[in-house]
Hints:
Elements lengths: L1 H22 L5 E2 L10 E2 L13 H53 L29 H4 L6 E8 L18 E8 L6 H6 L12 H8 L12 E2 L3 E2 L1 E2 L2 E4 L4 E14 L4 E9 L20 E13 L15 E4 L4 E9 L6 E14 H8 L2
Antiparallel strand pairs: 1-2, 3-4, 3-14, 4-7, 4-8, 5-9, 6-9, 8-9, 9-10, 10-11, 11-12, 13-14
Amino acid sequence: MSGQVVVIVVVSRLLFLAAAVGVVSGGFISTTDSCSLRPVVVILSRHHNTPPPLPPHHTRARGRRRAATALFHSAKNNNDDNEVNATTATAEAERLLARAKAIREELGNNDSNKHLVEGKGIRSRPLQNIQSEFSLPSTSLLFGSNNNYRLYLDVGREPGTWMDPRWGASGRRIECTIDVSFFSSSSSSSSSLQGASPDEGLLSSEEITSGLIKTVATKSSSSSSKLSPVFKLHHAPFARLRSGFDKMKINDGGYCIEYAPKSSTIRFCLSVSGTGGSSSSSASYGDVFIPEGKLYFALPYFGTTTVQSEDDDSNNIMPPSMSISKKEGTICVKQFGWNTGWWREESRILGVFRAVPLDEAKRRDKF
């Protein structure tokens, strides 16, 4: 019986060792005691070149080093590209400066306006001053600037106006400027009062004349007041609205002077396209607008003064300079209504305005 037990123990140990060797597939094993049934510890797996896996913290450190290396190389490449771009931009700037200098020299040469453009056979023309659409035409400037004025219009609801109650009820205003010239008023108006016939080219159109005569307070021939002919009022093509971002077309104009023993009045009229959805002014101003038609103005008139030129030549006399009040005047329009008790054409206040000499206005407005 004891012999059988010994055989069974030996066989079981051998089978256990064989199983352990089969599990590791021929790997090298080591036990502390070959004669005991203790657990088997595997020292090495197969003999090959694959290194054992690293711990997690070693893997993260290696990834950060690789990322830093890639970022360094990327920054170096970007610096190289920036240096190339800066060199190219510097060369392009030097080329453009040289070209601009050549163009300035060419424009500064008087003979350059006479040569033919190479390869095109077109004669180049001399440079001309750019004329703004808000400025007076060049023909009006030939007679001097002492009778040129800039009108500052402030259109909106005024106390006592007969405009529609909904017009300008919000309190909004429209501000604009118009450049005008009274250059034909020098000797033509005074000579016409003495019986001389003024030049027909200086007279305004019949439409402006008929509308302006209606605004004269005293029309009786027995009155001591005298009325000059209605002269043509020269003006800029457009009124300047919203600092030049909007405009209003001016079609025609005229003016006359009502002479009186104590005080005289200059009355003038401008025919405008308005701001109520016209083609020249597309901006919206809410419930306030300038209606299409004639705008009527009036200011105190203090006569004319002779101005001598600044040149030394005493015979060089400038056209007489008009003296107009700088105080506020009213802007009126003619519209039909019942405010007088019956249906008739009424004079309604559209706003206020001031007239400032053009030279003074340009120094202040910078345009």
